[in-house]
Amino acid sequence: MTTQDSNFRSMADLVRGSSLSRLKSLSKRDQIEIQEIQKEPLVFAHWMSFILVSGKALRIIFKTHFMTKAAQFFAAKTYGTDPHKISQEKGLDFAKEFCNLTAGQIKLDLNHNSVIIGASLPGMTRGFDEIFYPQQPGSMKVFWSLKCESEKFDCSANIEILEPFEFKKTEKAADDGEVEYL
Amino acid sequence: MAKILIVDDSESQRTQLRSDLEKGQHSVIEAGNGHEGLDQLSKNPDVSAIICDVNMPGMDGLTMCLKIKQMNSFPNLPIFMLTSEATAEIKKTAKENGVRAWITKPYVAEKLLGALDKVLKK
Questions:
Q1: pTM of the model
Q2: Do B57 and A181 touch (CB under 8 A)?
Q3: What number of C-beta contacts closer than 8 Å exist between A and B?
Q4: 3 state SS of B31
Q5: The complex's ipTM?
Q6: Listed residue (A140, A122, A156) closest to A37, CA to CA
Q7: Half-sphere exposure of B36 (CA within 13 A, CB side)
C-alpha cells in the first residue's frame, strides 16, 4: 500500500470517527451508530450542511445530508426540549455546528501529527445542490449514516491528498472541554 | 452571580451555554459575532466575563478581543475562548489580545463553570 493509499484510508476513518463522536456529544445521544450506505444516491436528503478543511497536504469537504425532522430530533436534547418544539432554523443551525465540531476534531488529530490545516465556516444549502459538487479526479469519496432510533444524518466526505504525510491516530481521546489558562 | 457575555454565531451553542451558565446562577447576555459582542459590552459595562468563539462571520473573536484590549476600559475583564481551534499559533495571538483561558469545543459544563468561578474570585 502506498503512503497516499494509507492516507486516504486513515482520513476516511478519521472523518467517520470524528463525525460519530461529535454528533454524540453535541446531541447528547450516546446510542448513535455508524451504518453503511450501500449505494450513493444522486441526492441524499433535503438539506446539506458542509465545511471545508484544507491545507498544504490535503483537502476534505465534509457534508451532512438530512431532513428537517432528523435535525429537530438530534437538536432536541441540546436545546433541552422536545423535537417538535425545535424550529427549522434551530435544526439547521445545529447541523452547521455539528459540521464545525467535526472539522475541529479532524484539525486537532491532524495537528497532533504536525499536519496544519484550516477550516472554513460551515455552510448550508439545499440537498439538491449536491449535484453542483462533482468529485475531483484523484479524490476519494466516502459516505455513511449516523443513525439513532428512526432518524439519521447521512454524511459524506470528499478527500484529496495533495502531499502524502505520516499519520497516526491519536491514542488518547481529546480532553473535551479542558481549560487551558494562557 | 455574575453577568456573562456569550459571543458565538451558533444559536445551538449559545442556547446550551446559556442553560449551563444559568444553572450555575449566572445571568447571560448574547451576541452572534464580534461586532454584536462589542455592542453588547458597551451597553452592559457591568459584564463580569466573556465566553467567545473564534471563527464567526462579520468580526471574528480574536479581533473582538483586540478591540476590547485597545479600548482600555476593561483591563481586567476575563475572556474565555471556546472554540474548535487549537493551534499554538492562534493561542499565542489570543494571549497577546488579552484572552485569559482557552477551552476546546465541545465544552464540559462542570469544567467551564469551575474555571469561571476560579477566575471571577480573583
A1: 0.88
A2: no
A3: 94
A4: strand
A5: 0.87
A6: A156
A7: 15
